[in-house]
């Protein structure tokens, strides 16, 4: 990834700080806008490092190992699990995805803020493997709005839509497990509050743990 000189300077400043950072986990139901918030946040603050997952899925055209994902086979993924090299992992659509532990810990020790954008299952695993992490839940403004987002494309059969809605209900019910909830009424507002929680800018948002 290429940065402009100002962004590179900010990133380098974060690495030189020498102050250990706390991992931030962002989770929430499908369709709530996690990827959009993370994309906007990193466009403004590339010094916030987004973990690159390992996967057994084959690379798609244009994907590069170590950029979109760390690509491996089933044997390699099994070896990472056995060696305790993953903070969390899950299976989806016949493939496995996981967060390598070493790159996360290395950047945290170096003073660089690290963000994980993962599902509920992954967030629960990180709570076990790295309990000091700050767990942030991104919630929709309302259930009706989430339904609109999940069904808005109109390209999926009814049974698939229903599975997505059932999963979203389970994910929303887990909100109380998280340290902080941010309601996604505005991407700009959520981005700024998340940056404050991470510690990149300003003070922690109201309600954030010390």
UniProtKB/TrEMBL annotation:
Q: Where is the composition biased (Low complexity)?
A: 1-11
InterPro entries noted in UniProt: GK/Ca_channel_bsu, Guanylate_kin-like_dom, Guanylate_kinase, Guanylate_kinase_CS, P-loop_NTPase
> What Gene Ontology molecular-function terms does this entry list?
GMP kinase activity
Q: What is its main location?
A: cytoplasm
Location of the Guanylate kinase-like domain? 21-199
Enzyme Commission (EC) number: 2.7.4.8
Which keywords are on file for this protein?
ATP-binding, Cytoplasm, Kinase, Nucleotide-binding, Transferase
Keyword check for DNA-binding, yes or no. Answer: no
Enumerate the subcellular locations listed in this protein's record, separating them with semicolons: Cytoplasm
One matching Pfam family: Guanylate_kin
Q: Where is this region: Disordered?
A: 1-32
Q: Where on this chain does ATP bind?
A: 28-35
Query: What reaction does this catalyse?
Result: GMP + ATP = GDP + ADP
Do you know which NCBIfam families this protein is assigned to? Answer: guanyl_kin (TIGR03263)
PANTHER family, A to Z: GUANYLATE KINASE (PTHR23117:SF13), GUANYLATE KINASE-RELATED (PTHR23117)
Function field = Essential for recycling GMP and indirectly, cGMP.
Family statement: Belongs to the guanylate kinase family.
Protein name (record): Guanylate kinase
**Species assigned in the record:** Streptomonospora arabica
Name of the gene this protein is made from: gmk
């Amino acid at each position: 990834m290429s940065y402009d000189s100002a962004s590179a300077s900010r990133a380098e400043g974060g690495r030189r700080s020498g102050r250990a950072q706390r991992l931030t986990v962002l989770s929430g139901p499908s369709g709530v806008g996690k990827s959009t918030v993370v994309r906007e946040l990193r466009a403004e603050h590339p010094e916030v490092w987004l973990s690159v997952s390992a996967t057994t899925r084959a690379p798609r055209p244009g994907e590069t190992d170590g950029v979109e994902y760390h690509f491996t086979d089933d044997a390699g993924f099994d070896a990472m699990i056995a060696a305790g090299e993953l903070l969390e992992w899950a299976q989806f659509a016949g493939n496995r995805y996981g967060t390598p532990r070493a790159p996360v810990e290395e950047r945290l020790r170096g003073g660089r803020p690290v963000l994980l954008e993962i599902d509920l299952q992954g967030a629960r695993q990180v709570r076990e493997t790295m309990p000091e992490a700050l767990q942030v839940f991104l919630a929709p403004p309302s259930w009706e709005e989430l339904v609109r987002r999940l069904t808005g494309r109109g390209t999926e059969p009814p049974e698939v839509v229903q599975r997505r809605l059932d999963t979203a209900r389970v994910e929303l019910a887990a909100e109380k497990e998280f340290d902080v909830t941010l309601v996604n009424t505005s991407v700009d507002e959520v981005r700024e509050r998340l940056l404050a929680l991470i510690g990149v800018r300003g003070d922690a948002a109201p309600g954030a743990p010390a």
